[in-house]
């Protein structure tokens, strides 16, 4: 057994001192993923779904969601970046890794960790839509309604959250905190150090 300190919400990989407040616990996230997966299993019954995970933020969500979804799925990943190490979007989306295969005729379900300004997803949907999928929908774990700059049609949303920068469960600040098992905000001094 490890001797690492355990925070009030369980193991926090030692990030505890940087955390300001917890928005969503591991249990709330797990329950929501099961709820989304149940709904999507009904909507896609009899169809084969191609999950497209948006790296890197959606990697934990993709992994838990694919296991919860009681349907055969295939997985592809695309890596895009618009934030770098900043806390607001540059508005410029860059493809860092494209899909490995053609999605023509497929039922594509994009999995995103968060919709903040909506710029990444708006760009991504145009890009994927031009490749001829049979259907194209989005399932996002988080959305910040007060931050949206571009309206994007999103069929499945886990949680609406306040307009604060959050980390954990795949979401990073300067590449840190993705491995935190819950979603939280950081103390202001973390940004100034
Ligand atoms: O709605 P938006 O304002 O466009 O923000 C959402 C996007 O920003 C984050 O990605 P980021 O660019 O930080 O890359 P990462 O997933 O590798 O951290 C997040 O994972 C979403 O993909
Ligand atoms: O609140 C956020 N946290 C981490 N990454 C993000 N990318 C867009 N919004 C966020
Ligand atoms: Mg990021």
Task: Describe it.
The chain is α/β, with parallel strands linked by helices and 193 residues long. It has a domain at 32-164: Rossmann fold. Helix content is 23%, strand content 30%. The protein contains four helices and ten strands. The protein has helices at 26-43, 59-68, 119-129, 188-192, and strands spanning 6-7, 10-11, 19-24, 49-55, 73-81, 94-97, 107-115, 135-143, 156-160, 183-186. The chain binds 1-O-pyrophosphono-5-O-phosphono-alpha-D-ribofuranose (PRP), hypoxanthine and magnesium ion.
Helix content: 10-25%
Mean of residue pLDDT values: 92
State the CATH topology of the domain at 32-164. Rossmann fold
Largest sheet: 6 strands, mixed
Low-confidence stretches: none
Based on secondary structure, the structural category is alpha/beta
Shape: globular
Count of DSSP strands? 10
CATH class of the domain at 32-164: Alpha Beta
Keywords: Cytoplasm, Glycosyltransferase, Magnesium, Metal-binding, Nucleotide-binding, Purine salvage, Transferase
Family: Belongs to the purine/pyrimidine phosphoribosyltransferase family.
Subcellular location: Cytoplasm
GO molecular function, one term: magnesium ion binding
Short recap of the structure:
The chain has helices at residues 26-43, 59-68, 119-129, 188-192; strands spanning 6-7, 10-11, 19-24, 49-55, 73-81, 94-97, 107-115, 135-143, 156-160, 183-186.
What labels describe this entry?
193 residues; alpha/beta; Rossmann fold; six-stranded mixed beta sheet; binds 1-O-pyrophosphono-5-O-phosphono-alpha-D-ribofuranose; binds hypoxanthine; binds magnesium ion; Hxn_phspho_trans; EC 2.4.2.8; nucleotide binding; hypoxanthine phosphoribosyltransferase activity; metal-binding
């Amino acid at each position: 057994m490890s001797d690492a300190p355990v925070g009030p919400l369980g193991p926090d990989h030692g990030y505890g001192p940087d955390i300001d407040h917890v928005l969503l616990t591991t249990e709330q996230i797990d329950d929501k993923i099961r709820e989304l997966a149940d709904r999507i299993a009904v909507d896609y019954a009899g169809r084969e779904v191609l999950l497209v995970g948006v790296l890197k933020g959606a990697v934990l969500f993709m992994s838990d969601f694919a296991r919860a979804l009681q349907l055969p799925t295939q997985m592809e990943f695309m890596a895009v970046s618009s934030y770098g190490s900043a806390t607001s979007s540059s508005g410029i989306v860059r493809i860092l890794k494209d899909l490995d295969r053609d999605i023509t005729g497929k039922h594509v379900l994009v999995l995103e960790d968060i919709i903040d300004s909506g710029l990444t997803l708006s760009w991504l949907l145009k890009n994927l839509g031009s490749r001829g999928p049979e259907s194209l929908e989005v399932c996002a774990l988080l959305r910040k309604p007060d931050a949206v700059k571009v309206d994007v049609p999103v069929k499945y949303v886990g949680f609406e959250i306040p307009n604060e920068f959050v980390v954990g469960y795949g979401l990073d600040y300067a590449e840190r905190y993705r491995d935190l098992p819950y979603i939280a905000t950081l103390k202001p001094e973390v940004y100034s150090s």
